[in-house]
Design goal:
By secondary structure, the chain is mostly beta strands. Helix content is 0%, strand content 48%. The mean pLDDT is 84.
Length: 132
């Protein structure tokens, strides 16, 4: 965000696209907590591992992948993210960069042992909802 401009708690709401442009999520608010669910994904036919912890692609649509985030001091914290490809859940926090980029940081135990990704806000008409 620019100097003098603060992040407001509901700025996370809306549709967001993964960096690979293969997953679109809808961020929403429920009982003053923030969530995201999968509303579109690019189907991969040979990319499904045989790992029993992996969620089958047929179950991705509508899966909640960001769970129970609270807004505190310009970021969303104390939530969990879910990697559908490997079935693992991570503690996470989310920061908004500008109006259109979410930095999502997942970690195990300590924030400094983390893995980062970002999502870009979907503008109206960019990608149709539904499976490919």
């Amino acid at each position: 965000m620019s100097i003098g401009q603060s992040v407001k708690e509901d700025m996370i709401l809306g549709q967001w696209m993964s960096p690979e442009k293969d997953l679109k999520v809808l961020c929403y608010k429920e009982n003053n907590l923030y969530y995201a669910k999968v509303i579109w994904f690019k189907k991969y036919y040979s990319d499904i591992p045989d790992d029993p912890h992996c969620v089958p692609e047929s179950q991705w649509l509508e899966s909640v992948v960001m769970d129970k985030f609270q807004f505190k001091q310009d970021q969303w914290v104390n939530g969990k993210i879910w990697n559908l490809k490997n079935g693992k859940r991570y503690s996470a926090y989310i920061q908004l960069k500008g109006n259109d980029t979410l930095n999502v940081v997942g970690y195990v135990m300590f924030r400094f042992f983390n893995q980062k990704t970002f999502f870009v806000r979907v503008k109206e008409g960019q990608v149709k909802a539904g499976k490919n």
